Amino acid sequence: MAVMGRSSRSLKQMIVAALMVAAASFGPGTACAQTGPLPSWNEGAAKRSLVDFVGRVTREGGPDYVPPAERIAVFDNDGTLWAEQPEYFQARFAFDRIRALAAEHPEWRDRQPFKSVIDGDAKGLAAAGQTGIVEILTATHAGMTTAEFDAIVADWLRTARHPRFDRPYDSLVYQPMLELLGYLRADGFKTFIVSGGGVEFMRVFAERAYGIPPEQVVGSSGVTRFEMRPDGRPVLVKEPRVAFVDDGPGKPAGINRFIGRAPILAFGNSDGDRQMLEWIAAGDGPRFLGLVHHTDAEREYAYDRQSPVGRLDEALDEAERRGWTIVDMKRDWNAIFPPAPRGGR
Amino acid sequence: MAVMGRSSRSLKQMIVAALMVAAASFGPGTACAQTGPLPSWNEGAAKRSLVDFVGRVTREGGPDYVPPAERIAVFDNDGTLWAEQPEYFQARFAFDRIRALAAEHPEWRDRQPFKSVIDGDAKGLAAAGQTGIVEILTATHAGMTTAEFDAIVADWLRTARHPRFDRPYDSLVYQPMLELLGYLRADGFKTFIVSGGGVEFMRVFAERAYGIPPEQVVGSSGVTRFEMRPDGRPVLVKEPRVAFVDDGPGKPAGINRFIGRAPILAFGNSDGDRQMLEWIAAGDGPRFLGLVHHTDAEREYAYDRQSPVGRLDEALDEAERRGWTIVDMKRDWNAIFPPAPRGGR
């Protein structure tokens, strides 16, 4: 065990050093002066609460010590690890996909909700309601094998650009959260995503973007059907049926079903994370509950109680009442995104 | 990365050493003479195929090298990691639970399937069919919080004894498979259970019995409901509804949904594992597919094509045809179970 302990510390030092190099490359005005962990986090209550929590649960012999196997940390994805405006990125993927398939579906030109998507008519799309969403999901997320879907998503991530930032969607991840993920992992935490997004969609980029392997991504999912193809090759076909919705009260259920152990640290950013935070807070032992508050219209977006996407209202009140950590993006983060990728991406 | 490489090798050496000490404690007639890995495996084709496969996928620069992150190994549970006769142990748990609750349910004395369970009437129970099974599952696996269910299972594991071996059920795990799990983990594999058994049932003992943490247990599951109790404490209540059946064609679907990455090694023991093995075999790159064949009536049980529990028929034919590894328990294993626990357990 002594070997593991040494290795764990060395690994941590290496990661911290790597993060400092990364931070230094941001150029003037950012984190150059910082020398400790979490360089993109400004000194303040939010950063202090994180560093203090990690220190307490990793101090062997201390009253709040948590063994490594129980250091489970869960993160919402949309609005917590990557951006979610002006629409959830997976919705943008679905709309782009409808437009890419439109040539093969001339009938869509006169049929809702497809007509609205093709025409970029937000009002018409809203009028199509829940039924419209199901039709779009069926047309874009079902009827192919799991491997085919992966390839479609990967291709979209390679080619699509965010309308405001003009860079790939999976580069619009929050630099301070990348540092936090690395900081936690260096301290023996296992980091998971617990998101309302589609699990198969997220797994295409989660390992590359966040260092979170597929088996640590929990999300909403559809039913798949095992099918033996005529050539004797078995495949899984994505069916147009929802298997599990990992949002709101579904998040604690998803943690129970997919992880099976109560996390000790959780981060969200919207009312959809409320029950997850409540359920985790109710466990025994030390707990860290955090919310990202989008307060920076200049560098990212500012929205909370009124936003149709990532609405943060009741959970914000509860976080204030219960003393959970609220990260004020504008005040607490000195960088938002990593530097834009060069070249083709 | 050099640090990690060194640590990984040291850890492996430590685990191999620990296994050798454990093997030596079995006493005469078992594995004392063995000095390499997998001491409870006799020299032969099965052991050779395992050691050869692990050697190939871990040899950096070799044609079959697989990076550690992709070294996913999956194991069925019933009949593969622990025994499953004379009935699946989870069924025995359910029957014991019915008998324990019978005093609170006088109406069960005259109602099927409960009457048959209480009287130990196998024929009556069989006559109750699928409906009977659902009623037993509802009475024993629903209507309580997830934490309450965990405590009930833990208590049963502490007190119940196997009818033939007179020892706790979770001590009837296969020593050679424990060694294999450790051997794989020392070589950077991540080991998962993928079983038709209930995921919440297995998670109570999987970490202690196999070193497999809850988040690496995939199984069948029921629906849970998030409920805020009057005292403000949120809980998850187990409902009498099946969410997912992780058996047969459900196993590849379960691997896709819960793990999201194709395993490179899989072990099963019955026709319920067939589609999982077929699907994994169809992937690119090196693959190891294995079946445990129960051939040892003296030390464990002998059963295959005709058994109502753990029936191995079509998968056995397919394994022979395709050259998958078939472990002949009697011939290939020099030990079956670890030494019986002492004292209260």
TrEMBL record, chains A, B:
Coiled-coil region(s): none
Biological classification of the source: Bacteria, Pseudomonadati, Pseudomonadota, Alphaproteobacteria, Hyphomicrobiales
InterPro entries referenced in this protein's UniProt entry, alphabetically: HAD-like_sf, HAD_sf
Signal peptide boundaries: 1-33
Source taxon at top rank: Bacteria
Record-given protein name: Haloacid dehalogenase-like hydrolase
Annotated Gene3D superfamilies: HAD superfamily/HAD-like
Keywords for this protein: Signal
